[in-house]
Every structure is written in structure tokens, then in C-alpha cells.
UniProtKB/TrEMBL annotation:
Signal peptide: none annotated. Belongs to the SEC15 family. Component of the exocyst complex involved in the docking of exocytic vesicles with fusion sites on the plasma membrane. One of its GO terms (biological process) is vesicle tethering involved in exocytosis. The lineage of its organism: Eukaryota, Metazoa, Chordata, Craniata, Vertebrata. It comes from Dicentrarchus labrax. Keywords: Exocytosis, Transport. Residues 27-191 form the Exocyst complex component EXOC6/Sec15 N-terminal domain. One of its GO terms (cellular component) is membrane. Coiled coil: none annotated. The keyword Transport applies. It comes from the Eukaryota. Residues 370-662 form the Exocyst complex subunit EXOC6/Sec15 C-terminal domain. The keyword Cell inner membrane does not apply. This is Exocyst complex component.
């Protein structure tokens, strides 16, 4: 390439140096024209496409101008909107920062300021307004001079104060109506908390003595958190008291505090009367009593909170006066409505509810000893209801009994019955199976029912703040009533009812003998559950021994009576021929009726084998004496005017037969 450049340079130099310059220029011009023609041809060939391209470009430029205008307009609007959004975002950010700062400040003040100061924050809307009105009235308006607008403003200031006062009073009325409707919820929450505390730390009955001694020393004062186990939720957790605080503050600023105090106390007294009025059907269900107690607890929880969070709106004397009024009405209502109840389970549930009610209010400092005194009165009613229920139970047991010794075929059956009744008979244990227990079914059933009654009495004694000795005495007295009144009457009913055979009466004697022997086990059972030794001084003794002994004596007397009545039936068949002639030769046979009577007595006396010897011997002696007396009455009957020797021989033969039978009887040997 470098060589061609050199050649071209030499050629051009030779053209300018020689004489061919003009020719060269002509050739060059011709060459240029040829190229121009070629270019023109080429341009002519592509001109239409060029024109079309230019036209398209012109169109594109127009569209581009329009698009540029739209983009410019859109950009301008976006810029304008973006400025507003940016401003709003900056304001939002600033507001959130302020909100966070306010929340932090309130939280810090809440923890730093005294508890009662928190309620001042609730009055922030009205208090500055009142202060502003005061400043305007006493400072600003006098300085402004005697202008008409000043006088108008001065005239409106009292109206504004009245408006603020009325607004606060409206909120207070709404508050009073709200707590009237929701006092049962407040009370329910407080009682539930006490119930939870009881469920976590319920002592046994015998452990209540020391706890109650401590409580009695503390009296009716407010219990602290350690005594309550867990703090009962305050009313402030359930109710917004700001309307009370706000209204009290406003009336205080306005110099009308006495007016507000009188109004508040008057309204709350009215609400107390409504709360203390029980529903007419409250006694029908436990829910009725629960609702009644919840409302009362809710009322006094609110008053207790007001007492401790305001200075003088209510005082201790006012609250105690309300409580004394409430206590008298509560006790009267409970006495009336509980007297309609004949269900021991409902009475027991009611007692537990009253205990919770009393413990809840005691936790707020209210004296509740009268409620526990009333529960002791209710215990008498509870005992009477239990006696009625057990009277039905005992009668069912006695009516359903077959009055036959219990057959047992296996050791499992034997242990089943001996676990229900404390049978101690080494000789019976040695006997092989199958064998029979000496008593019938009603012995273990009656014994188990006696224990169930004792448990029922114990349940009522729980949480009554009684000592172990008091509980033991209460249970023993109730059990004695069950034995001497209820069970004794049931046994007498079973003994004296119609169609009771001698075999049944014999089994009753055997049964009552075993029950009598089990009385000391009942004594031990009561001592074990009350933790009071049976030999404690002045301890009440059970009357079970005398009860079963009296029943046994009644059964024995009934046996003698029934046996004599049966003998009379046979003697009525006696038909002596008082004028009979003397039979010659041979011996006389005893009368037919007497032979039947002796056969009956033999069969009957065989049933007495399980009776104590004295009872069986007395029955035999009673029967023989009755036969003797009856035969003598036949002989001395006023209607018998003459007696032949033949009749006397027959009567003598019958008497000798009776004498022989009695002599050979096992009970006279």
C-alpha cells in the first residue's frame, strides 16, 4: 500500500511538472461528470424510497411531538402529585413520631405518677376549659375594657360552666346505669377469683382451726395479697371509672362538691335497694342465688373502689351503713327462700355459694360473721332435710330386704360384704364355702347409709371456720338424731307392719344385734374424719347402742305377741266335752288341737336357734305360760257350769302333754 501511494504521488508530481496539465484536468472533469451521472442515476433509482422515508420521518416527528407533549404533561402532573404525597408522607411521619412520643410519655407518667393522679388525665378536656373560663372572667375581660363583646362573653361564661357540668353529669348517669346493669359481671369476676384461690389452697376440715384463729385475730379489716393468695381483680380492671373522677373534679372546681356527693350517694342507695331485692323464684335454682350474690358483690366492689380511689366521695361510715342494711336484708331473704328448699344437694350448693360470697366480701374488708352464724342456722334445716331423705332410704332398704341370712359362695363375695360391714367372726371365717352370713342384706346397707349420712354432714361443715371439735360435735349430734329418730322409727315400722312372720322378726333381732355391735366402729369412723379422739372430754357419744337395743326389744315383744296370738288361734279349736264320761281301760290321747299346737311350737322354736339363749328361753316360757293361762281360763269359764271326771281326765292328759314337751325342750335344759 505504501508503494501505490508513492506511485500516485510521483504521477501527480509529473502532471504538474509536465505540459499535460490541461489534458489531465479535462480527463479529471470528464471522470467527475461520469461519476456524477452514475450518482444521479443511483439517486434517481433510490429517490422514491428516500422520499417515502422522509415522509415517514415527518409523520414520526409529529407523533413524537404529541407524545412529548403528553409525557411532559404527565411528568408535570406526577411532579405536582408527588410533591403533595411527599408532603403528606412527611406529615404522617411526623405524626407517627409524635404519637409514639405521646404514648411513651403517657406510659412513663402512668408508672411514675401516683395511682390517684391517673384519673386527672381523664379530665383533661374539661379542666383546662374551666380554668380558661376563670382566667377569661377574672383577668382578660376586665383588662379589655367596657366593650359589648366583653359583656356578651361575660354573660356566656356561666352558661358554658353549666354546659360543662351538665355534660359531666350526663356521663355520670350513663356510668351509674352501666354499673347497675353490669354489677353481676363485676361480682362474678371477684367471686371466681376467690373460688380459684380456694380451689388451689383448700384445707381439710381438721386443718381449719389454725386458719380460722388467724382470721379471727385480723377481724374484718382488708386482707393483703399474701392472705388472699392472689389479688382479687380490682374493679378498675372491669369498669371505666373516669366519669366519676371527672364529674367529681368538675363539681369540686365549681364549688359544688357537696351537691355531687349527696347526689351520688342517693343514687347508689336506690341501686342498693334494687340489688338487695331477690326474685320471687330465687329459691328454685342455684342460678337464682348466684345471680343475686353476684349483683351484691359487684355493688360493694364498686363502692370499695370508690372509697379507696376518691377523697371523701364516700367514706367508711357510709359504706358500713350500706353494708349493715344489706346484711340484714340478705339474711332475711336467705332465711325465707332457703326454707322452701327440700333438696339437700341444693342446700349444700347454696351453703358453698354463701361461703364464697362471704369470703369475697371479707377480702374487701366487710364483716361477715353474721353470714356464718346464719349458715349454722341453715345447718339445722340441712340436717332435717337429710333426715327426711334417709328416712325414705331406710324404708326402701327395709322393704326390699328378704330377712334371710346372706349366702356367700366365694371368698370374693365374703370380702365384698365384710368391706361394707365390720363383721368379726373367727368361727365363721374358718367355715368352708358356701356358707351364710348371720345377718340379712339390710345390715351392710344400713351401715353404709349411716356412713354416707356422716359424710353428708361433714360436707356442710367444711369452710365454716369451725374447729375440729365443733365439727365432730355437730356430726355426732346429727348422727344421733338419725339413729334415735329416723332409723328407730323405720325399724319400729318394719317390726310392727302387718304380715311380719316370726322368722322375719327373728332375723330383725339378729340384724339389730350386729348393728349394735358395730357402733364403736362408727365412733372410730367419725373420729378419723374429724381428727378428734373419741375419748375427748365432753365429746358427744353415739346413741346407736340404745337405738338398736330398743329395736331388738321391740322385735322380741312382737315375737311374744305374735306367738301368743298364734297359740290363741289353736286354742280356739279346743272343743272340750265338759260332760264326757270316763273311758274305761287304756290311756287317753292328747287333743287334736293340742297336738297341732305342739307341732307348730316345735317348728317355731327351731327358728330360734340363732337367737341369744335368753331371748329363745323367754319366748318358750312365754308360750308355755300363755298356754297354761289359757287352759285355766277354759276350765274356769263362767259358762262351764258342770265338769265331769271324763272331761277332767282329758284336760289332765293335755296338760301332761304340754308339760312333757316343755321338759324336753332345749331351752329349758
Amino acid at each position: 500500500m505504501y508503494g501505490s501511494v508513492v506511485l500516485k504521488s510521483v504521477a501527480i508530481t509529473s502532471v504538474y511538472d509536465g505540459q499535460e496539465h490541461g489534458l489531465f484536468m479535462e480527463k479529471l472533469d470528464a471522470r467527475i461528470r461520469n461519476h456524477d451521472r452514475e450518482i444521479e442515476k443511483m439517486c434517481n433509482h433510490h429517490f422514491q424510497g428516500f422520499v417515502d422515508s422522509i415522509t415517514e420521518l415527518l409523520k414520526v416527528r409529529g407523533e413524537a411531538q404529541k407524545l412529548k407533549s403528553q409525557v411532559t404533561d404527565t411528568n408535570r402532573r406526577l411532579q405536582d402529585d408527588g410533591k403533595e404525597l411527599t408532603s403528606s408522607m412527611e406529615e404522617l411521619q411526623q405524626c407517627r413520631v409524635q404519637q409514639r412520643n405521646i404514648a411513651t410519655t403517657i406510659d412513663k407518667l402512668t408508672h411514675c405518677l401516683p395511682g390517684n393522679t391517673k384519673r386527672v388525665l381523664l379530665c383533661v378536656r374539661y379542666y383546662p376549659a374551666l380554668r380558661t373560663l376563670e382566667q377569661l372572667e377574672h383577668t382578660c375581660l376586665p383588662r379589655a375594657g367596657q366593650y359589648r363583646f366583653c359583656s356578651i362573653m361575660a354573660e356566656n361564661i356561666p352558661k358554658l360552666r353549666t354546659q360543662i357540668r351538665d355534660t359531666a353529669m350526663t356521663q355520670l348517669r350513663d356510668f351509674l346505669e352501666s354499673i347497675r346493669k353490669h354489677s353481676d359481671k363485676i361480682g362474678e369476676a371477684a367471686i371466681k377469683q376467690v373460688h380459684k384461690t380456694h380451689a388451689d389452697t383448700v384445707p381439710a376440715v381438721h386443718e381449719l382451726l389454725s386458719l380460722w384463729a388467724v382470721k379471727k385475730q385480723k377481724g374484718g379489716r382488708r386482707m393483703d395479697e399474701e392472705e388472699m393468695g392472689e389479688e382479687v381483680p380490682g374493679a378498675h380492671d372491669l369498669v371505666d371509672f373516669s366519669p366519676v373522677y371527672c364529674c367529681l373534679h368538675i363539681y369540686t372546681v365549681l364549688g359544688l362538691r357537696d351537691v355531687f356527693e349527696n347526689y351520688y350517694r342517693k343514687q347508689r342507695r336506690k341501686q342498693a335497694r334494687l340489688v338487695l331485692q331477690p326474685h320471687s323464684n330465687m329459691h328454685e335454682t342455684l342460678e337464682g342465688y348466684t345471680r343475686y350474690f353476684n349483683q351484691i358483690v359487684g355493688f360493694f366492689v364498686v363502692e370499695d373502689h370508690i372509697l379507696h380511689t376518691t377523697q371523701g366521695l364516700v367514706n367508711r361510715a357510709y359504706v358500713e351503713e350500706l353494708w349493715e342494711l344489706a346484711l340484714s336484708k340478705i339474711i332475711a331473704a336467705l332465711r325465707t327462700h332457703s326454707s322452701y328448699c327440700d333438696n339437700p344437694d341444693l342446700v349444700l350448693d347454696l351453703k358453698n355459694l354463701i361461703v364464697l360470697f362471704a369470703d369475697t366480701l371479707q377480702g374487701y374488708g366487710f364483716p361477715v360473721s353474721q353470714l356464718f352464724d346464719m349458715l349454722l342456722e341453715m345447718r339445722e334445716q340441712y340436717g332435717e332435710i337429710l333426715l327426711k331423705r334417709w328416712n325414705i332410704t331406710f324404708r326402701q332398704v327395709l322393704d326390699q330386704d328378704n330377712y334371710s341370712p346372706i349366702p356367700v359362695s366365694t371368698d370374693q363375695e365374703y370380702k365384698h360384704y365384710t368391706s361394707q360391714f365390720p363383721l368379726q367372726d373367727p368361727e365363721l371365717e374358718k367355715l368352708p364355702f358356701p356358707k351364710k352370713l348371720p345377718f340379712s342384706e339390710f345390715v351392710p346397707k344400713v351401715y353404709c347409709q349411716l356412713k354416707e349420712f356422716i359424710y353428708a354432714c361433714l360436707k356442710y361443715s367444711e369452710d365454716l371456720h369451725l374447729s375440729s371439735t365443733e365439727v365432730d360435735d355437730m356430726i355426732r349430734k346429727s348422727t344421733n338424731l338419725l339413729l334415735t329418730r329416723t332409723l328407730s322409727h323405720c325399724l319400729q315400722y318394719a317390726i310392727k307392719k302387718k304380715n311380719v312372720g316370726l322368722a322375719e322378726l327373728v332375723q330383725v333381732i339378729i340384724n339389730t344385734t350386729h348393728l349394735e355391735q358395730s357402733c364403736h366402729f362408727l365412733e372410730e369412723f367419725i373420729s378419723n374424719i374429724t381428727n378428734v379422739p373419741p375419748d375427748t372430754a365432753n365429746a358427744t357419744k353415739l346413741y346407736g347402742t340404745s337405738t338398736f337395743k330398743d329395736a331388738r326389744h321391740a322385735a322380741e315383744a312382737e315375737i311374744y305377741t305374735s306367738l301368743n296370738a298364734k297359740i290363741d288361734q289353736f286354742l280356739q279349736l279346743a272343743d272340750y266335752d265338759w260332760m264326757a264320761a270316763v273311758q274305761g281301760g287304756g290311756t287317753l290321747d292328747a287333743s287334736d288341737y293340742l297336738i297341732d299346737l305342739i307341732a307348730f311350737l316345735r317348728s317355731t322354736f327351731s327358728v330360734f336357734t340363732n337367737l341369744p339363749g335368753k331371748v329363745a328361753q323367754t319366748a318358750c316360757m312365754s308360750a308355755c305360760k300363755h298356754i297354761s293361762t289359757s287352759l285355766m281360763q277354759l276350765l274356769l269359764d263362767p259358762e262351764v257350769r258342770q265338769i265331769s271326771m271324763g272331761a277332767l281326765h282329758q284336760l289332765y292328759t293335755d296338760v301332761k302333754e304340754c308339760e312333757s314337751e316343755c321338759r324336753h325342750s332345749a331351752y329349758f335344759s
